[in-house]
């Protein structure tokens, strides 16, 4: 078997795991979008939040290998923020904006709304010239 054939076989062998991981990350990004829409509180939806899935600009391989980042642009009114997320040891680990980071062990509604509110504060701080919070678990 040639090196090329070995590469093709490896890609095929792990296709299901990669697809499951991609679906989980996209579902997480979609849930984060909904959390951002409701971050102002019950009955106060933010209508000017949109989600646009994109290829992560840091990925150098397609399809994305297991453990790679999946990305989306979230439009938050007058700005857009790139959010990158991947699965690490069963948790969602990600980055957003200039230097925002997160790690969520649980992805319940409260945890996602907490992350959404932190993201809004961090992005506002970036535009105001302040330093966003550094990585730390939210739950």
From TrEMBL:
Origin superkingdom: Bacteria
Protein name: Uncharacterized protein
Organism: Deinococcus radiopugnans ATCC 19172
């Amino acid at each position: 078997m040639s090196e090329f054939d070995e590469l093709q076989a490896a890609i095929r062998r792990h296709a299901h795991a990669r697809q499951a991981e991609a679906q989980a990350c996209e579902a997480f990004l979609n849930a984060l979008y909904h959390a951002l829409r409701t971050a102002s509180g019950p009955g106060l939806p933010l209508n000017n939040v949109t989600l646009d899935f994109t290829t992560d600009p840091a990925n150098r391989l397609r399809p994305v290998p297991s453990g790679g980042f999946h990305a989306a642009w979230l439009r938050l009114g007058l700005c857009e923020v790139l959010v990158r997320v991947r699965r690490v040891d069963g948790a969602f680990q990600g980055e957003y904006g200039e230097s925002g980071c997160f790690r969520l062990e649980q992805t319940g509604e409260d945890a996602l709304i907490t992350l959404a509110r932190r993201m809004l504060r961090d992005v506002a701080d970036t535009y105001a010239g302040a330093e966003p919070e550094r990585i730390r678990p939210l739950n």
